[in-house]
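Usage

Read records sequentially. Each one opens with the input sequence:
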Amino acid sequence: MSALIESHDVVSHANPGSLAVEIREGDWIAYHRHIDQAPSERDLIHRFGGVIEYHRACAMAYLGRRAQHRGGVCSRTHPRILTPQFVADLEATNKYHRYIRYPWLETLLNLLTEIERIQDEISSGGSSNVISLIPTIK
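and closes with the structure output:
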């Protein structure tokens, strides 16, 4: 039996008796406190196998076991069929929101496309654009 840590509680380290990290599912503040106030690296290696494993345990505690118990984002009661039209609509919506959030991104992508086009023109121009620095033997 374990108590969940509230986000306003001071978190110094994970529960020393187990490998489970006690963070309430979705509690972002408690997650950051666990990461910021982690035990010593020696303790982490001894209990979790390393720092990365500890961070993974904290992330899984934050995310909860939704994916394991309920199948993640797939809903059994509301199945989704990803048709080509649905994916195209989703792509257009995501693109619209991305350009609203980052207005400079569309200009950057257009510039990169133009640079690639110019490089392709230069490279496909054949040998007429190549000047040899080695004198030809007659």
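Summary fields computed downstream for this record:
- DSSP finds six helices and no strands in the chain.
- The radius of gyration is 27 Å.
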